[in-house]
Amino acid sequence: MRKEFIILVAAFFIMSLTAFSAVYALEEEKKPVLITEKTADITGDGEEESIYLKGIEYQEDSLHFKTIFLEVREKNGRTHNMEFDGGFEPAICLKDFNDDGVKDVLVTINTGGSGGILNHHLYSLKDSKVTDLMTPEPLVISGQFLDKYKAKITIENNHKSHKFDLKERAKDYELNGLYHNGKLNEPTELIMGGFDRLKPIKIKGKKWGLRGNQTISGAAHADVIGRVESTWILKNGVWVLLSTKVFEANMKQQK
């Protein structure tokens, strides 16, 4: 009986090892596919580098990438590689954000989350040295519902506030129990998103900066009540907030 048990355990172990090896081999076979490529002088040597954005797909012909890579090849054969977490719709943009006369590389990746959040990565490769320039952190915004179908946000970065009149949503808010006859049933915070857009913009027609967008939602992510736009410029290695602007959303825009 003991001998049979040992044989059974050994057989199970061999089968498990074989299955694991097969899965591992399958994963090993997956190679990065080319997503997009560009050519530009991003080292400042007067020669154009080849810039490739690649990704490992979860499935063949999938729009969802498990891992994403940025590869830069110089004319002299030198290469630079950066690896990022996966996502959807990865893209690259080349602009001179640090105002050193050489274009930088901005990588944007959609996380695919319910809030529509994007991840951004910014690098300088001047003189063939890879420098992470980072990107601005999203604005720190606090917000809450108020009585009489109103809401208020405060942008902590510059201490600016804005009030929203949400009377057109009164019926829905009453039905879902957020309000009762215009009075808030309990303290409820608004939902603040990170950057769902961060795009290059010319600052006063001269330097390149970034303009970010953050969505503000009410009772749920789908209940968008507005957005906050912020404009940034890179000075001495630090992202400086130049301005913010609040836009209100009406229910018609969401239908």
Automatic annotation (TrEMBL):
Name listed for the protein in its UniProt record: VCBS repeat-containing protein
Organism: Anoxybacillus andreesenii
